[in-house]
Design goal:
CATH architecture of the largest domain: Orthogonal Bundle
Number of strands: 2
CATH topology of the largest domain: Arc Repressor Mutant, subunit A
Helix content: 55-70%
Strand order of the largest sheet: 1-2
Structural class: mainly alpha
CATH superfamily of the largest domain: DnaD domain-like
Largest sheet: 2 strands, antiparallel
Number of helices: 11
Length: about 240
C-alpha cells in the first residue's frame, strides 16, 4: 500500500508532458526522423518544466545515447528549420540561450488538412501549391505582426484553411486591411473574413470590388441642400409697397 502511495506521489512530482497528437501523426511529413522526434520530446519535457536550455548530457543519459548524438539531432532540427536557439536577457541582464520549437508548430500548421487528418488523392496532387500558399500566409502574418506566432495563433490560422476553407488570397487581403487599421490581431482578421462570408464574398475580385466601392463612398462628401431663407416680397423700386 505504501509503495502505491509513494508511486502516486512520485507521479505527481514528476509532472506531465503534453504532446499534441498532430505532431505524433504528422512528424514524418515534417521530415523528422524517429530519433529527432525523441530528442524533441525530451527537450519539450524540460522546456515545460521551465528549463530553457536543457543539458544535452542529461538528455543523452535518459535516451541511453551519447551527447554527440543528441547534438547531431539538434543540429538536424536546426537545419530543417524546426528549431531556433535564441538569446534573451534574464532578470540580471545577462544573455542566456533558450530553445524555441515554434518553427516546428508553424510548419505543422502549414501542412494541408492537419486538423482533419484527411489526405485524398486530389489533395495530394495539389499539395505543393497549397502548401506554398499556406506557408506564404503564415510568413506574411509573422512579418506584419513583427514577432513569431504562438502555437494558438498557428492553430487559428490553420482552422481558417482546414475548417473555414478561406482562400489564401482572402486571408492576405484581410491582413492588409487589419494592418491599414493598425489592428495586429487575428481576432480582427477573423471578423473581417466572417463579414465577407456573410456577404457571400468568396473571391479576391469580389472583395476588392466591395472595398473599392466602400472607399469611394467614404471619400464622396454627402450632398448638402441649400437651406431656404424667409420669403421676401418683390416690388418695383418706382412704386411704393401697397398699404394694407
Amino acid at each position: 500500500m505504501h509503495e502505491l502511495e509513494n508511486f502516486a506521489s512520485a507521479l505527481l512530482q514528476a509532472g506531465e508532458t503534453t504532446i499534441n497528437n498532430l505532431i505524433l501523426t504528422h512528424y514524418r511529413e515534417l521530415n523528422m526522423t524517429n530519433e529527432e522526434l525523441i530528442v524533441f520530446l525530451q527537450y519539450k519535457r524540460s522546456l515545460d518544466r521551465g528549463i530553457d536550455f536543457p543539458d544535452a548530457e542529461a538528455v543523452a543519459n535518459v535516451m541511453g545515447t551519447t551527447t554527440a548524438d543528441v547534438y547531431t539531432q539538434l543540429d538536424n532540427l536546426l537545419k530543417k528549420d524546426l528549431l531556433l536557439i535564441e538569446s534573451k536577457a534574464d532578470e540580471t541582464g545577462k544573455l542566456r540561450d533558450r530553445y524555441d520549437f515554434s518553427p516546428l508548430y508553424q510548419k505543422l500548421a502549414a501542412l494541408p488538412d492537419t486538423l482533419s487528418g484527411v489526405h485524398t488523392t486530389t489533395a495530394a496532387v495539389s499539395a505543393p501549391d497549397s502548401k506554398s500558399a499556406r506557408e506564404d500566409v503564415f510568413n506574411k502574418i509573422e512579418v506584419e505582426f513583427g514577432r513569431p506566432l504562438s502555437p494558438t495563433e498557428l492553430q487559428t490560422i490553420a482552422r481558417w484553411f482546414d475548417e473555414d476553407h478561406f482562400k489564401p488570397e482572402l486571408i492576405l487581403i484581410a491582413l492588409r486591411e487589419a494592418v491599414l487599421n493598425q489592428a495586429y490581431s487575428l481576432r480582427y482578421i477573423d471578423r473581417i473574413l466572417l463579414s465577407w462570408r456573410q456577404k457571400n464574398l468568396t473571391s479576391a475580385g469580389q472583395v476588392e470590388k466591395e472595398l473599392s466601392q466602400r472607399r469611394t463612398k467614404q471619400a464622396t462628401p454627402p450632398t448638402q441642400s441649400t437651406p431656404k431663407g424667409p420669403s421676401i416680397p418683390l416690388f418695383k423700386v418706382s412704386e411704393p409697397p401697397a398699404q394694407s
